[in-house]
C-alpha cells in the first residue's frame, strides 16, 4: 500500500516508508521503529493505520536501508547512530507530514525508550504520543498526552492505540 519516499533537503535527505490516503484526508502519524529497524511488521503497522484509521503515516528509516538479521546486529546499528543525524531525520520527517499532508501530528514510538518520541515533541508541535514499555513516569516524555502500552495483547494494544490517536488527532 505504501512506498519508500525521500524527505528533507539536500545532503541531509533521508528515506522512509510512507502510507497515506488520497486525498490528503488523515492526520499525520510518525511511527518510530525500534532496534530491529524498518521491518515488514513496522511497514504493515503503517499500512494498517492508513487503511483502517485513514492516518497519513511516515516511518523514517534511521538505518538507511539496513535491516539487522539478529539482535546483536540490531544493537550494533542502534549504537552506531549519530544522534545529530537522528535528530535531523526526525525533525524533517515531522515537517514532511505537517507541511505536506496534515497539520496535526501524533507519534508512535516502538523503541521502548521513548527518547525519540521526546525528541520529536521537543522539536515541534506533537498532539499526542504512544510509547511502549517506558521506564519512569509518563510526564517525562512530553507535555502532550501520552499513552503508555506495556504488557498488552496485540489486539488490546491496537484498540487502545487507535482510540487514543483518533481522540487526540480528530
CATH topology: Rossmann fold
Tally of DSSP helical segments: 5
Detail the poorly predicted runs. Answer: none
How many domain modules? 1
CATH architecture, by name, is 3-Layer(aba) Sandwich
Main sheet overview: 7 strands, mixed
**Class by alpha and beta content:** alpha/beta
Strand order of the largest sheet: 1-2-4-3-5-6-7
Q: Give the CA-CA distance, first to last residue.
A: 23 Å
Strand content: 15-25%
The total count of strands amounts to: 7
- How are helices and strands ordered from N to C? EEEHEHHEHEEH
- The global form is globular
Helix content: 25-40%
Radius of gyration from the alpha-carbon trace, in angstroms: 15 Å
Describe this protein's structure.
- With 170 residues, the chain is of the alpha/beta class.
- It has one domain (3-169): Rossmann fold (3-Layer(aba) Sandwich).
- The protein has five helices and seven strands; from the N terminus they run βββαβααβαββα.
- The chain has a seven-stranded mixed beta sheet with strand order 1-2-4-3-5-6-7, sandwiched between helices.
- Strand 3 (28-32), helix 1 and strand 4 form a beta-alpha-beta unit.
- Helix 3 crosses helix 4 (115-123).
- It is globular and about 35 Å long.
- The mean pLDDT is 87.
Q: Strands, helices and their partners?
A:
Elements: E1 3-7, E2 14-19, E3 28-32, H1 40-53, E4 56-60, H2 71-79, H3 83-100, E5 105-109, H4 115-123, E6 128-132, E7 146-149, H5 154-169
Parallel strand pairs: 3-4, 3-5, 5-6, 6-7
Antiparallel strand pairs: 1-2, 2-4
